[in-house]
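Quick log. Single chain, no ligands specified.
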Amino acid sequence: MIMFSSEEDFLEFLKKNHKSTNTIPKNWLGIGDDAAVIDINKTDLIFCTDAMVEDTHFRSNQDFFNVGWKSIVSNQSDIAAMGGFPLGFTVTLGINKYMNKEKINRLYEGINNACENFGGILLGGDTVSSSTNFISVSAIGKSFVSGKNMTRSAAKSGDIVAVTGQIGNSIAGFEISEKDNTISNKFTQKFLNPIPRINESKLAIENGIICSMDLSDGLIKDLYRICKASNVKIEIDFEKINYDQDLNNIFTKNIENKILSSGEEYELILIGPASKIKNLEEKIDIKIIGRVSDNKEPILEFYKNKKIINLSTEGFDHFG
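-> predicted structure:
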């Protein structure tokens, strides 16, 4: 029986019960963001880790190239969300007796391809026997601007909220691939072969943006994490969200819930003063979707036609 109601509940448990999670040096960042940051001789190194488990993140009958690709991209995206670029990765691979050499070869082809395209070198790792196939990647990166990082806790009243790329394609790709994993289109491509926003991260932090998060569990859950970390209210206009109009044909009901809960998009949520965000609009593909206001407690509201949307989902959570 799972004793935690959410990932946040699990992290709060660690913070309250294990001293090592709180005893970090002044200039370091620990639990609470997309990645940790360690200041070593005025060089900011970014650390993160992410795992993919069979039947939770991937299926045994899919092309393992995509599994390898996505395992690296998820870490590259976390590093980008902090305002950095990847340097290297270590891979822990858990395999059962049914895993064959062809799948493992395709897995590492995907890993190498993601490294070649978006940065970082495969440094090593470990292989273990496991009843369930899994891949766990640990990554190290470096900040684009020394001494500056983007965090979830830096949203301020008066800031505006923007998101890179289109939202919603990943959940459509997931549902399509669950029915037929041989189908290849723009939606399955987004789900199986997402693109980390490394260049967008560089331009954002160079333009003074200090609040960011990668979109991995859906706008509902991830924006609320920013609300909680920054103790602010965020209001989002659904009509301003950039989504593919073909989704209207795929999701004929509750399209708002589908788009707002779409995880594994690996786009960047960027929050900052209007002047800085609008300056970014001229350089990268982003869309302004909402605003931040002061508040005594974290609140997140979504509007459509100036009316609050009643949501029937909270986004993805491993403990949900």
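The two ends are 12 Å apart (CA to CA).
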